Structure to design on (107 residues):
């Protein structure tokens, strides 16, 4: 199986940051991790042009990344992966990267 990193950038609706973070941490991450092929998730935050932007890195291990993405899409917005009104859908971007070498660690 191959390793992939699914990189998703999001932001909350203005004024909804607390609800967005609650939903993301307690609902969305567990829902995404329940999809076969997704093996880990980690979130990051940064200030960009005066607003907080969020980045989620989802590690995937699969021979069928298109199938994993299709399953994520199929579940999105259903009881298996409810979306929050605090998520600014227009601000979402996602890119799938394939690992091209082994993981390396500092000595």
């Amino acid at each position: 199986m191959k390793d992939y990193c699914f990189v998703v950038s999001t932001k909350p609706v203005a004024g909804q940051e607390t609800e967005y973070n609650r939903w993301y941490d307690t609902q969305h991450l567990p829902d995404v991790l329940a999809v076969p092929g997704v093996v880990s998730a980690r979130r990051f935050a940064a200030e960009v042009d005066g607003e907080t932007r969020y980045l989620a890195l989802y590690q995937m291990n699969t021979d069928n990344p298109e199938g994993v993405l299709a399953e994520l899409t199929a579940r999105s917005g259903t009881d298996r992966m409810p979306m929050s009104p605090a998520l600014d859908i227009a601000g979402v971007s996602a890119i799938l990267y394939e690992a091209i070498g082994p993981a390396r660690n500092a000595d």
